[in-house]
Design a protein that fits this description.
- By secondary structure, the protein is of the alpha/beta class.
- It has two domains: 29-129, Roll (Ubiquitin-like (UB roll)), CATH 3.10.20; 134-281, Cytidine Deaminase, domain 2, CATH 3.40.140.10.
- It is built from nine helices and twelve strands.
- The chain has helices at residues 50-60, 103-111, 119-129, 144-157, 159-164, 188-201, 220-228, 242-251, 275-281; strands at residues 5-14, 17-26, 29-35, 38-45, 70-75, 89-94, 168-174, 179-185, 210-214, 233-236, 254-260, 263-268.
- The strands form three sheets. It has a six-stranded mixed β-sheet with strand order 8-7-9-10-11-12, with helices on both faces. The chain has a four-stranded mixed β-sheet with strand order 4-3-6-5, with helices on one face.
- Strand 3 (29-35) and strand 4 (38-45) form a beta hairpin.
- Helix 6 runs parallel beside helix 7 (220-228) and helix 7 (220-228) runs parallel beside helix 8.
């Protein structure tokens, strides 16, 4: 299997001094995801947790919603002309009776944040395919101080980032702020898929009492993945997109952006933030 990091020679210039040395870089390789033997998608990812990535991707596509929907995932042997296994092709086999939607059409409608289609079509697609409605999730009351503490906890858990400086991260926290899982990847959407896929494989969906924190911005695609996994709160250290805010308002997702230090913006779902206590202290 591929390595998470690789070494490359680099010419280093510091204050006029020039030296040559090896540098540690994050690995990036393509992963082809097949569904019941048929090619479905290719994503550029950091090798590792490939089965979880594929499972999480199919949760966001509305194919999988529970561990019982998944029969198995395997690497495809003979993935190259000479018959060798690159460990860059996986095949996901669904359980008998699982209805597989027209994914080609679905992907054109709503999975890519840059697809160029109208926001209404994207919002409608997620709302009608979500199998873990956030409106049915148990109530949460999260203190702003708890949310403010999460980025530092995520950063402390980013082991590969410390070596490369080139990875996005996503983490799941429980309502007490305890870290449940963290994944790193060259793509932020892959990091989220790996979290969700691991939860599906362990029978943990829906993630109805958790907070998803991402290290960058909150795009429509990431909001979609949270909704499809039943995650009620998505927080990001950077800005959300307008369509992510629209999706959050439409589905009841709590969306927090610019989570830095003690400051944050709540764009939707403020009912899960303990604002009254925060106002009293202010």
């Amino acid at each position: 299997m591929g390595r998470v990091t690789e070494r490359r020679k680099v010419l280093r210039i510091r204050d006029g001094a020039v030296s040559s040395r090896p540098d540690t870089l994050v690995a990036e390789e393509p992963l082809e995801i097949r569904l019941n033997g048929k090619p479905l998608a290719i994503t550029m990812r950091t090798p590792g947790d490939d089965f979880a990535l594929a499972a999480g991707f199919l949760v966001s596509e509305g194919v999988l919603a529970d561990a019982s929907d998944l029969q198995n995932i395997v690497y495809c042997a003979g993935a190259t002309v000479d018959g060798s296994n690159t460990y860059n092709v996986v095949d996901v086999k669904t359980s008998p009776g699982v209805v597989v939607p027209d994914i080609t059409l679905e992907r054109n409608v709503y999975t890519t944040s840059s697809c160029g289609l109208c926001g209404k079509a994207s919002l409608d697609a997620v709302r009608t395919t979500a199998r873990h409605p956030i409106a049915d999730a148990p109530p949460l009351a999260l203190a702003p101080e708890l949310l403010a503490s999460l980025p530092d906890r995520l950063r402390a858990a980013q082991r590969v980032f410390d070596r490369t400086g080139g990875l996005h991260a996503a983490a799941l926290f429980d309502e007490r702020g305890e870290l449940l899982d963290v994944r790193e990847d060259v793509g932020r959407h892959n990091a989220v898929d790996k979290l969700v896929g691991r939860a599906l494989q362990s029978g943990g969906l829906p993630l109805s009492r958790t907070v998803l924190l991402v290290s960058g911005r909150a795009s429509f695609e990431l909001a979609q993945k949270a909704v499809m996994a039943g995650i009620p709160v998505l927080a990001a250290v950077s800005a959300p997109s307008s369509l992510a805010v629209d999706l959050a308002a439409e589905t009841g997702l709590t969306l927090v952006g610019f989570l830095r230090g003690s400051s944050m913006n709540v764009y939707a779902g403020e009912d899960r933030i303990a604002l009254r206590a925060a106002a009293a202290r202010g």
